[in-house]
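Consider the following input, taken from an annotated entry for Short chain oxidoreductase (Penicillium nalgiovense).
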Amino acid sequence: MASYLVTGCSRGLGLALITRLATLPKTEVGTIIATARQDNSVRLTEIASASSGRVQMVKLDVTNESSVKEAVLAVEHQLQGKGLDYLVNNAGVSDWSPTGLEGMDNLNETFNVNVTAPHLVSRAFLPLLRKGDKKTVVNISTTLGSIAMADAFRALPTPAYKITKAALNMLTVQYAQQYADDGFTFLGISPGWLRTDLGSRRADLPVEVGAEKVLDTIQKATPEQNGKLVNIHVPGWETREGPNQYDGKEIPW
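Applying the prediction step yields:
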C-alpha cells in the first residue's frame, strides 16, 4: 500500500487527484494526505469523512516555511512510523497579462508559488520520503514551460506562468541529479489543458481525465525517467492538430 501526499487539494487538479486516489483499492493506495492552505473545502472534507480515515487533511501553506515544517510533523504522526512513498507538488498559480511582458507585474509572487514552494516542500519531506518504498516526487508542470515548444504557445499571454514552470523543470532536474544515487525519482508531469479555474471551460480535457492519467503516469514511473518532463497519455489525442497532443512521451525542453 503506497502513501501519497498532494499539495493544493482544495480545488482543481489537486482535488481531482485526491478524489481519484480515494477510489483505488486499498491494496494499491494506503494513506492519502490531502493538503491545502485553507481547510474550508466542503468537497475535500466530504471525501475525507467518507474514507474511514484513509484520507487525512493537513493544513499547508506551501509558501510559508513554518507551515511546511508543521505539516511535516503532522504527516509524520499520521504515517505512524512509516515513510512517504509519493509526494505530488501540485499547488500552483498562473497569470494573465494581455500586454505581455510590459504588464507582467507578479513574477516574484508567481515564482514563489510555482518554484520556491516545491523546493521548500520537497526539501522538508525528504526524511519521510527516504523511509518510503517508492521515493518518488512529482512536480506538476506544463508544456508551456518547455523552451523548445515556446513558439507554439507564443500567443498565450501568461509570461510569468511560462517562466516559472521552465524554472520548475530545472528544479526537477537538480533534485533528480542530486538524489539519484539515493534511489529517488523526481519527475515533471504535464497534466494537459484541463477544465479547471486555472485552465478555463475551453480546455481540452475534464479535470477527472487529467487526474486519472496523471496517476497512471506516476504509478508507472521508473528510475530511468528521473529528471524528465513527461506528457500524460490520452487515447485519441496522440496526433491531434495544434500544440496539444497527449501521447505519454517525454516533452522536449
